Amino acid sequence: TPLVTIANVDMRYGGTGGTLAVKDLTLDVGKGEFAAVVGPSGCGKSTLMKLVTGLHMPQAGTVTVNGERVTKPVSIVGMAFQNPTMLPWRTTLDNILLPLEIVEKHRKRLRANKAEYVAKAEKLLETVGLKGFGQKFPWQLSGGMQQRANLCRALIHEPELLMLDEPFGALDSFTREELWCVIRDLHAAQGVTIILVTHDLREATFLADKIFVMSSRPGRILQERRVPFPRPRE
Ligand code: ADP
Ligand code: ADP
């Protein structure tokens, strides 16, 4: 069953006569699937992410997440974007707890049992190779470390859907491939549905079960490919 369905969506910025960012976009991503979206800069990848998360509303067509038409920001989603956006006055750990403070359901649980969530955040930090860095402030971390912490923040509320928009962008190739393995293992272990936007085809084939190729204009899906062979698992 699909978790995310985009059907015949048009999205234009700036009203009539503005930029047509995506046109007649149709795709679906099944529960537990790892999908990648690739395509050149400006083809509408970020727009697609914002449509799924409910940050933008389409002018035509429908976006459905978990059987519900998206009409406002979706709370079952974890997001990590290219530029880490950690609050500089909070420690890394308190940044990771941030999504819990936004959703009322979690806010109550956080108040009732903070220790449980702190332990969880620390476990996530360990998973991404940042054990013991929770008390550092973001500006005390390198860019790559901030991106890792960003991933922890996207995962703290155990989202059903994880949206990753070039989350490995500014990383050196060694750290990047290390993080690929972290993400791949997370997907294998937790069964979370993932949509990854990237312009790195190697990254897409390494990670995803299914790859959508978008054309430069006007943001249609050109091809849908199943990754044809099992990926290496070390
Ligand atoms: P990608 O993520 O693939 O680079 P985007 O979704 O960011 O593509 O952009 C798709 C098109 O929409 C581009 O032509 C871009 O310039 C335009 N666009 C994106 N965001 C806005 C915006 N807020 N206002 C106007 N045009 C935008
Ligand atoms: P990405 O690297 O994710 O493709 P972009 O560099 O295309 O992002 O855009 C960065 C941000 O600026 C996005 O949030 C996008 O919505 C916005 N943006 C992109 N193009 C335009 C535009 N022509 N006018 C206004 N905002 C834009």
TrEMBL record:
Signal peptide: none annotated. GO terms for molecular function: ATP binding; ATP hydrolysis activity. Residues 4-234 form the ABC transporter domain. Residues 100-127 form a coiled coil. Transmembrane segments: none annotated. Belongs to the ABC transporter superfamily. It comes from Mesorhizobium australicum. Gene3D superfamilies: P-loop containing nucleotide triphosphate hydrolases (3.40.50.300). It comes from the Bacteria. This is NitT/TauT family transport system ATP-binding protein. InterPro entries: AAA+_ATPase (IPR003593), ABC_transporter-like_ATP-bd (IPR003439), ABC_transporter-like_CS (IPR017871), ABC_transporter_ATP-bind (IPR050166), P-loop_NTPase (IPR027417). Keywords: ATP-binding, Coiled coil, Nucleotide-binding, Transport. Pfam families: ABC_tran.
